[in-house]
Amino acid sequence: MADAGEIERLRGLEAHLRARIRGQDHAIPRIAAAFCRGALGLASPDRPRGSLLFVGPTGTGKTETAACATEFVFGAGHLVPFDMSEYQDQAAINKLLGAGRDDPGLLGRALEMSPGGTFLFDELEKAHPLVLDLFLQILWEGRITVATGRQFRLTDYFVVFTSNVGSIEAMRMERLSFASVEQAVLRRVEQSLRPELVGRIDERIVFGRLSPDVQREICELEVARETARLRGLGYDLEISREAMEFLAREGYDPHHGARPMRRTAERFLQQAVMRSLFAYGCVRGRVVVESWNAALRIVAT
Predict the structure, then answer these.
(1) How far apart are CA 40 and CA 1, in angstroms?
(2) What is the mean pLDDT of residues 88-94?
(3) Residues of the chain with CATH 3.40.50.300
(4) In percent, how much of the chain has pLDDT > 90?
(5) Tell me, which fold does domain 212-300 have in CATH?
(6) Helix or strand or coil: residue 84?
């Protein structure tokens, strides 16, 4: 049974996710609840702490949400990602579970190194059928046996799958209500993925596409993240409103969501610092837009 301090701490998970994730307010309560149930030990003792499927267009925060929830529950370094596009052939199962008595495979090594956390399997729809069979075992029995003969239990882990199945439908239905989009995407998921696998996943959550206003909020988060990192390196930057508008425009991508926004913030802010270092040998001031060459520069204060 969880102690009072842990219960109080977990109450903050939903607020933590809302502070870090934008545009998915409908999904955050369900995700927070799933992680809290598992963290409090309420899940079945014979299965993972929780299993979730995040579906929706690329760049909508699926991976970031899994990372944020995992960091809150376990601390840093407990998210173990696997890109299923690398596991599309028959040899994939050997890659995961090992190819001989001395090889535990990538999944076995991860289980050896970490006492708990989240396994994130990105782009589930691309995995080979043998890998899907492995997931069925993990979700139902909460254990795997690797090539060395060692059996691992996954009852201290969450399992999160992501998929872009239904993304095309979601993009085409942008003017309909989210409830209609959600129903269409989940129907597509049931048609495209093995029903026995989908049926064993605790939560199936559709992530909505991001509006321009939401992407601007994400721009502000990414700029805050990067300026804090640069401040730790000794570069104290104040971002002007013009610079923020410039970055929001440059990073906006209606097809790839928020993913380009982080790259944009990092690239332009780092470029501004670099130019200032080359020009002045110091970087303390305010970042403004050089509209004549579509760049940012530092103005000393």
Answers:
(1) 7
(2) 90
(3) 4-206
(4) 57
(5) Helicase, Ruva Protein; domain 3 (1.10.8)
(6) helix
